[in-house]
Amino acid sequence: MTAINHPIIGDAKSLLLPPVLPLIDTHTHFDAPVFDGDRMIQAQQAYECGIRHLVLLGYVARHFKRLYVTQQALTQPSVPQSSVPQLTLPELTTQHSLLPHAHIAVGLHPFYIDQHTENHLSQMAQLIEQCRPLAIGEIGLDTFTPAMKQPEMLAKQQYFFKAQLDMAVQHQLPVMLHIRKAHAEVLAILKTHDYDAHLLGGIAHSFSGGEQEAKAFVKLGFKLGVTGQITNPNAKKLRRSICAAVAKYGVNCLVIETDCPDMTPVMCQTSNYTQSALGQHADNEWHGAEGQNRNVPSNLPWVLLTLSELLNVAPADIARQLWQNSTHALQVDWSYPGLN
Ligand SMILES: [Zn+2]
What we know:
Layout lengths: L10 H4 L8 E6 L10 H10 L2 E7 L6 H12 L14 H4 L7 E6 L11 H13 L4 E8 L3 H4 L1 H21 L3 E6 L2 H10 L4 H4 L2 E3 L5 H9 L3 E4 L9 H14 L4 E3 L43 H12 L3 H16 L10
Parallel strand pairs: 1-2, 2-3, 3-4, 4-5, 5-6, 6-7, 7-8
Helix pairs in contact: 10-11
């Protein structure tokens, strides 16, 4: 392994980062309009920082098409070749593409439950038939606000969650779970549903539960998705949960994600502006005009590095393990690119 500094990240940060390692960003909203101005540049930078695959997650039916348009744009970049930097690393020159492969998950997100209709479920079912996605997501339960805890709202969330789990079973697809302040309720549904994560894979994205809950999801066959939140030394509960799951099940229970444009690693934050990009706005768009804390896929190595330190596993070893974990969770056979 050659000690090559990250090509994108500035000097101060590159002193701390490991060499470029192949990574999978298992959860992004890289289709969000906040990336419209520089998506191709960000995709190239992500590639140069090691990101070889990224998953675009659905959340409301009216934006499903945007997932496919973004995937298409990343598959057939319209950037002129002259703008592609000259790359000399053997690992980079042997690749067919200079952009990460983009994959799609479609799902109706519980935070936007008041927007979802029966018709949206039908649209989703039709879409899955026509353009098979990589996964179903993000789906689950969210009782973050008092309004979402109301029995009627929670019942609607449960109905949509179960209906989408049914689709996952029907089409034999992994699910990407969004769970906020509802871990026990999600576990209760999963334990009685036909969906079997040991067979179909699946990820508990941006895991935020306690130690027992972390172990319970892993026991059911899910991987725990770790975001840039882990880079915050004050995220003690999260760190304890991840360490507890790893102590019992090993590093093979984890995957990493940026959840961009949210969850910016602390070392990439340039202001104290903490407005969430997703999960706070009714239309789920990024209104943070300040934008300085917008998370991007190329920040993913910071999650890797923090996990490496937290779990005391060498970056190259944990990167290889996370790759395997991701392909297992997503039920794909993407081979590890390696650095030789
Ligand atoms: Zn998300």
